[in-house]
Amino acid sequence: MHILRRPRRLRTSAAVRALVEETSVSVNDLILPVFVVEGQNVKREVASMPGVYRHSLDNLLDEIGQCQDLGIKAFDLFPGLDESKKDKYASESWREGSMYLEAIHAVKSKYPDVVVMTDVAMDPYSSDGHDGYVENGEILNDETLEYLGKMGIAQAQAGADILGPSDMMDGRVGYLREKLDDAGFSKVAIMSYTAKYASALYSPFRDALESAPKFGDKKTYQMNPANIKEALIEAELDYAEGADYLMVKPAMLYLDIIKMLNDNFALPIAAYNISGEYSMIKAAAQKGWIDGDRVMLETLTSIKRAGAKIILTYFAKEFAQIQQQR
């Protein structure tokens, strides 16, 4: 039998497969989300996220040093606060000397070469648990922007390299860009949570930060998982308002959205491989149902293949350790 074209010739050995490999993930593509909490010598595992810990600042600095030695260069800090520090205005987010702002400053002071990304949203600081300002049970869009602006400026002053507005309020990218520029922080970038869907996969993250909404849900500001074209509208607005990166969240179930944004915008596309995605893989691996390392690598490759240049993932440290062993 004469078969002219045999694709299997390009799969005959590991070396041949490596020659023709179209997509590869590097540690340079990854941002590691980390949880910082108050206290001393705290390293407390998140029950629903095996291998992920809440760190007090002293331990966080050690953790970032270890990660930097593995080649990880970018970190997204998330604050876990006691309920007593929360109010309806999220005022702890811009209070001078607050734990989160001190953490940003400490990380940049000790590790000036790493990239520090921050979270801009009210929910970690809000007594209502929502990403925006609440009045009479309604999340108010324009009133929220003022508080996000104060938060963003405080983070930039503390040394943040990238602000990550995750709140999904209309107009917040343009508002933040204007406030940053007016305050002399034109070099601080904005990685917008452009297409952040109202997913059922956020539960472990909310467990980690104890930041679940006190009433209702987030469907009036986060996107409907059934919608595609809406993501284009959000991306066009964020692009026009000055975003430097466009993010899709979650990643695994929204590969089509990642591809669409990558096909339509010249900005770097980021994707957040979120807590629920991480926890599902970890749980199945602990049960012995899947090979956790292989599924992790396949997952990150699929996100990169879809068009994400940057991947925020809780797997970053494990990935870096595996790469270093090769």
Q: What topology emerges from the helices and strands here?
A:
Layout: H1 14-19, E1 30-37, E2 43-45, E3 53-56, H2 57-69, E4 74-80, H3 99-110, E5 115-120, E6 133-135, E7 138-140, H4 141-158, E8 162-165, H5 172-182, E9 189-196, H6 203-209, H7 229-241, E10 245-249, H8 255-264, E11 269-273, H9 275-286, H10 292-306, E12 310-313, H11 316-325
Parallel strand pairs: 1-3, 1-4, 1-12, 4-5, 5-8, 8-9, 9-10, 10-11, 11-12
Antiparallel strand pairs: 2-3, 6-7
Helix pairs in contact: 2-3, 4-5
Enumerate the spans where pLDDT stays under 50 for 5 or more consecutive residues: none
Compute the separation of the termini in Å: 41 Å
**H/E element order:** HEEEHEHEEEHEHEHHEHEHHEH
Rg for CA atoms: 20 Å
Give helix % range. 25-40%
Number of E-state strands: 12
Report the sheet-strand fraction.
Answer: 15-25%
**What is the typical, i.e. mean, pLDDT?**
94
How is the largest sheet built, in terms of strand order?
1-4-5-8-9-10-11-12
Overview of this protein structure:
By secondary structure, the protein is an alpha/beta fold. The protein is 39% helix and 18% strand. It has helices at 14-19, 57-69, 99-110, 141-158, 172-182, 203-209, 229-241, 255-264, 275-286, 292-306, 316-325, and strands spanning 30-37, 43-45, 53-56, 74-80, 115-120, 133-135, 138-140, 162-165, 189-196, 245-249, 269-273, 310-313. An eight-stranded parallel β-barrel has the order 1-4-5-8-9-10-11-12, surrounded by eight helices. A two-stranded antiparallel sheet has the order 6-7. Strand 4, helix 3 (99-110) and strand 5 (115-120) form a beta-alpha-beta unit. The relative contact order is 0.14. The mean pLDDT is 94.
